[in-house]
Write a structure and sequence with these properties.
eight-stranded parallel β-barrel; about 260 residues; TIM Barrel; alpha/beta; single chain; binds phosphoenolpyruvate; 8 strands
């Protein structure tokens, strides 16, 4: 089978002062330069306010930056919003779309996310599209259906030619920030399901090439087992991305 390049993305959420962001990015850059030489892509996703600084600090390494969100609108009277084109102008390469915290606390529906996906692609960004069920969905055995709807309504409107710009992140909401990780077999089962959806909607090749990350309480101690699953192509890391040693160890687990 074709080997997909693993990707580890660290989502800092609404954490870090500018000073702390500098420190963290500098430490991670140093550790990665010293310890990681292999086929793995790394993206740091700081708050918007730190993107420019972190981008500058990472020059000379192959670590890239991403943003945590972008607006569904182009530009204009949308106070407080950040457009995909603004991110592109900062030389930020990617953006998270549909993180469960955006869906839960900021009312982002699949329809809004579909618009964000379009804006991000139009601006030439790569996007990490997040999906995942709530605990109640899993308990009522609706998890496959929920994830399918999120992808059908939020992502699968795009043309196959754009799929090279897409990474899917499966993040069961009950595993985010809770310390409760999906077991490797639960994660693998959903990743295989998602890959099948991509194949059915697009093509065999599209499905085989799509990178699907797992997110939800990934730590250096459980990363290896998760990343060794056939359909898991890396991770979207929250809490553990705020600590340079642990994050770099997670990157190494993907090699
Ligand atoms: C996330 O925010 O995408 C995430 C997976 O968080 P954590 O690793 O803290 O569960």
């Amino acid at each position: 089978m074709m080997k997909r390049k693993p990707l580890i993305a660290g989502n800092w959420k609404m954490n870090t002062s500018l000073e702390k962001a500098r420190e963290l990015a500098t430490e991670i850059k140093g550790m990665v330069l010293d310890e990681v030489n292999g086929n793995v892509e790394i993206i740091l996703i700081p708050p918007f306010t730190h993107l420019s600084t972190v981008n500058g600090l990472l020059s000379g390494s192959n670590i890239k930056t991403g943003a945590q969100n972008c607006s569904q609108f182009y530009d204009g009277a949308y106070t407080g919003e950040i457009s995909a084109a603004m991110l592109q102008s900062l030389k930020v390469g990617s953006v998270l779309v549909g993180h469960s915290e955006r869906r839960q606390y900021f009312g982002e529906t699949n329809q809004i996310l579909a618009e964000k996906v379009k804006r991000a692609l139009e601006a030439g960004l790569t996007l990490i599209f997040c999906c995942g069920e709530m605990l109640s969905d899993r308990e009522s055995e609706k998890h496959f259906e929920v994830v399918k709807t999120q992808l059908d309504e939020g992502l699968f409107h795009i043309a196959e030619a754009n799929l090279g710009k897409i990474v899917i992140a499966y993040e069961p909401v009950w595993a985010i920030g809770t310390g409760r990780t999906a077991s490797a077999s639960q994660a693998q089962e959903m990743h295989a399901f998602i890959r099948r959806l991509v194949i059915d909607h697009y093509s065999e090749r599209a499905g085989k090439e799509m990178r699907i990350l797992y997110g939800g309480s990934v730590k250096s101690g459980n990363a290896k087992e998760l990343f060794s699953c056939e359909d898991i192509d890396g991770g979207l890391i929250g809490g553990a991305a705020l600590e340079s040693r642990g994050f770099t160890d997670i990157v190494k687990a993907a090699l």
